[in-house]
């Protein structure tokens, strides 16, 4: 079944509740995006409807009749003869109609098992009417029906939904867990890229995987060069700004905004007491700049040059 890395404690908590025979009907799987909450939900659903592992092929294909996953639908429905387009633009929300259709299906008995699991991916996407409709099912759940609500920002869910569910909190992975997860997902990955991806992922394998194929090893090398030399003539900063400000380099630009503050934090941890405070201030400025850059659509070349200057300032704050 689905391989999980870094969430053993969460899995033990869920399976302990399952084995007790008193499993709560509603669970919120809460944590930052990309930690593997959807994989966890599928594994948890399988443990409920297919404990003997007889229908793993159906579960893997998403066709097991007793595991229903509710997601945002494509803006344009596929034609009858067409395969679903995995890259299609999606609607902004999970609609009330989807939840009402789900509720209608819950009036029948499960198909292959004696239990049914509903996965909402993600509950953050529920429109207000859909959230209120789902609340009714959580208040009066059908017999042998379990709800797994994936949430990347659980504090934004309706308090009434939170109060009717048990919370499972997923934490970012540490360095060793990230190494294992990314090596498992891409065994052929270059070691130089692996280190950069771990920093870019910030504890989230899913987000790190989104940056694969962007040659982050070279980007990492360029940032280290700025720190090591201080870039006295601005040549390295100018070259980096020219490369990353191109329209085709948008993903590498976004990766740079993640990598630079993470690299500064890594350097700060290695500073002696005389320099760590100054390096921490550099990290604070870099993090704030990265957050503003996307939110406010700041000029890319200016952002890259400023971030490069923050990196260069570390040259005077040597690591111990």
Automatic annotation (TrEMBL):
Pfam families xref list: DNA_pol3_delta2 (PF13177)
Gene3D superfamilies noted in UniProt: P-loop containing nucleotide triphosphate hydrolases (3.40.50.300)
One GO BP: DNA-templated DNA replication
Full protein name: AAA family ATPase
């Amino acid at each position: 079944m689905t391989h999980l890395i870094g969430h053993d404690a969460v899995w033990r908590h869920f399976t302990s509740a399952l084995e007790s025979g008193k499993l709560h009907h509603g669970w919120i799987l809460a944590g930052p995006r990309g930690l593997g909450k959807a994989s966890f939900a599928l594994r948890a659903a399988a443990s409920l409807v297919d404990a003997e592992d007889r229908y793993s092929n159906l579960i893997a294909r998403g066709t097991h009749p007793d595991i229903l996953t509710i997601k945002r639908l494509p803006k344009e429905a596929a034609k009858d003869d067409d395969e679903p387009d995995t890259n299609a633009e999606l609607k902004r929300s999970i609609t009330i109609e989807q939840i009402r259709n789900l509720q209608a299906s819950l009036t029948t008995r499960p198909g292959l098992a004696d239990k049914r699991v509903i996965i909402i991916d993600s509950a953050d996407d529920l429109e207000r009417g859909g959230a209120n409709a789902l609340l009714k099912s959580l208040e009066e759940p059908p017999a042998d029906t379990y709800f797994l609500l994936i949430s990347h920002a659980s504090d934004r869910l309706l308090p009434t939904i939170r109060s009717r569910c048990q919370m499972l909190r997923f934490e970012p992975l540490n360095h060793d867990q990230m190494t294992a997860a990314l090596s498992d997902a891409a065994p052929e990955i270059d070691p130089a890229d692996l280190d950069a991806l771990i920093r870019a992922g910030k504890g989230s394998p899913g987000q790190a995987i989104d940056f694969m194929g962007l040659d982050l090893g070279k980007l990492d090398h360029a940032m280290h060069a700025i720190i090591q030399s201080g870039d006295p003539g601005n040549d390295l900063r100018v070259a980096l700004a020219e490369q990353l400000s191109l329209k085709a380099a948008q993903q590498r630009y976004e990766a740079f905004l993640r990598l630079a503050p993470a690299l500064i934090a890594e350097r700060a941890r290695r500073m002696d007491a005389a320099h760590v405070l100054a390096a921490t201030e550099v990290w604070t400025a870099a993090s704030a700049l990265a957050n503003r850059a996307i939110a406010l659509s700041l000029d890319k070349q200016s952002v890259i040059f400023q971030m490069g200057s923050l990196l260069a300032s570390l040259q005077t704050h040597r690591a111990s």
